[in-house]
Amino acid sequence: METKWWHDAVVYQIYPRSFCDSNNDGIGDINGIISKLDYLQQLGVNVLWLSPVYKSPMDDNGYDISDYQDIAAEFGTMDEMKTLLAEAKQRDIKIVMDLVVNHTSDEHPWFIEAKKSKDNPYRDYYIWRDAKPDGSAPDDLGSIFGGSAWQWDETTQQYYFHLFSKRQPDLNWENPKVQQEVHQMMNWWIEQGIGGFRLDVIDLIGKEIDKGITGNGPRLHPLLQEMNRATFGDKDLLTVGETWGATPEIAKLYSDPARHELSMVFQFEHITLTWQHGDKWNPIPLDLKQFKQVLTKWQTELADQGWNSLFWNNHDLPRVVSKYGNDRELRVESAKMLATALHFLKGTPYIYQGEEIGMTNVAFDSLQQYKDIETLNFYQVKTQSGVSHEHMMQAIHENSRDNARTPMQWSNEPHAGFSQVEPWIETNPNYGAINVEQALADQNSIFYHYQKLIQLRKAHPAIVYGDFTPLFEDHDSVFAYLRKHQDETLLVINNFSETALSVELPEALRNQSVECLICNYEAKQHLDVTLSLKPYESLAFKLN
Ligand code: TEU
Ligand code: CA
User: Which ligand is nearest to the CA of 419?
Assistant: First the structure.
């Protein structure tokens, strides 16, 4: 396998609106990010993925872009963006931009033109269809944010298509002009010195609406190969596609280097296991055996072809320690265990802001405290169809995207040190105990555990390139595996449960001295026949 700089990289995702507010208007901004670069360098990450900072009316917090080559005033200016790139570079940190090109904002000049008349030169940049004879929408396709995917336009008497909010009209990727415009814009960003792109819902751009196909359409891979050729193909960039519908087979189509598409994709199979029938508003408990099977499958299937991304969290998902750990009395132990379990896998790990200090879900009492468009839309859709307020509030507490979007907790000062004024969304009330200042002052904190995991990845090629072999596959609570590369073998054992237990080691691993690389209780230097594990205990060893 040809080695790439992003193979041993660790990416840190920033949701700029919630990261750090430098000018005290309650909204995080680019200067805020600049002020925290030393902190990120201390953590050891070498790539930052920025959620969108472009000009936007913020219907979906920036995932609705009205100018791809300008910065939202509330986040700063293009000059500040250039300063961020330069300051990051000085610290050996690359910036990955979020590329949102399935749709634009309805305030993008292309859409403003497109809706003027049917013969406007920009009309075909978007997807328009006539009403059915009875005036209703062309078909039943639904928006991912609830309701129909079709919105009636009074002026031109046609419907336009939007897979997200009606203020996020889908671009028409069948139009070669759309492709060229996007490629030009991407090349402009590449010239600014960025480290790559995270491609928002990229599996939707190959859609064939009239056949009812949205995800994984037949045009998808040819479009990506063309994008690769026209933009980043001959540059050494990290490209990661967001692909909710990816199976390992599909992921290889994107990430097999021979196909010239992307570096890797985000797959969500492990995430949706706790959604009943794919519905996040009907959360179900985690079945750890299934979870292990899914993680193992992805490790095995992409072993020699393609590349995995590794993540528990992002700006759309609940906090990992609340979802799969214990965010109360065993918060520190379980957060460290989850970190080790993920960071020793093969692939490129992504850390979401606040994960490195064990930030938790929030449970706001009232719907008014929530800001996320998906949460607010679905509350309406679901309660109108008969779901109770209580059910919805519980589902929101568990899975709302706002769990990830409460302000980053920097200190125990008012508003968690994120801002001196009331932030755009309330802080999690637990910031007094859970914050960066506290984490940096405690040598046993989750922060230093992440820092060590990042250092270990740079020091041990077995973590980056080693073969993966699962252990205890039938165990209900233990997720364990071996990583082997040349003469180095690593053993990683994680107790995913809050009860103590013990496992009998396979013969080959018994009675030997080992080097403990990282753990969340006491280190062990010797493996006997049985290994006892405390609640959420996690150990990574180098076998001698
Ligand atoms: O997400 C796509 C997406 O399908 C999820 O956000 C989905 O809405 C939810 O998390 C699962 O029910 C991307 C971005 O990550 C998200 O923030 C944007 O809102 C969305 O695209 C539209 O650009
Ligand atoms: Ca601000």
Answer: 2
Q: Which ligand is nearest to the CA of 24?
A: 2
Q: Domains of the chain: which residue ranges? A: 11-104+176-450, 105-170, 463-543
In 92-247, at which residue ranges do the beta strands (DSSP E only) sit?
A: 94-99, 128-129, 150-153, 158-161, 196-199, 238-242
> Please, which residues bridge with residue 124 across strands?
none
Residue pair 147/128 in contact (Cβ under 8 Å)? The answer is: no
Condensed to tens digits (0 to 9), the pLDDT of residues 29-53 reads 999 999 999 999 999 999 999 999 9
Burial class, 513, CB count within 10 angstroms (exposed 0-12 / middle 13-18 / buried 19+): exposed
R_g over Cα of the chain:
23
User: Does domain 105-170 correspond to CATH entry 3.90.400.10?
Assistant: yes
The model's pLDDT over 386-404, given as tens digits with 9 standing for 90+, comes to 999 999 999 999 999 999 9
Domain 11-104+176-450 has CATH 3.40.50.620: no
The 10s digit of each residue's pLDDT in 315-368 is 999 999 999 999 999 999 999 999 999 999 999 999 999 999 999 999 999 999
Ligand 1, pocket-test mutation among 18, 54, 201, most atoms within 8 A of CB: 201
- Expressed in angstroms, the distance from the first to the final Cα of the chain is 26
Relative to the CA of 102, which ligand 1 atom is closest? 23
Give yes or no: 437 in active site: no
Mean pLDDT of 188-204: 98
**CB of 524 closer than 8 Å to CB of 516:** yes
State which ligand 1 atom lies nearest to the alpha carbon of 145: 8
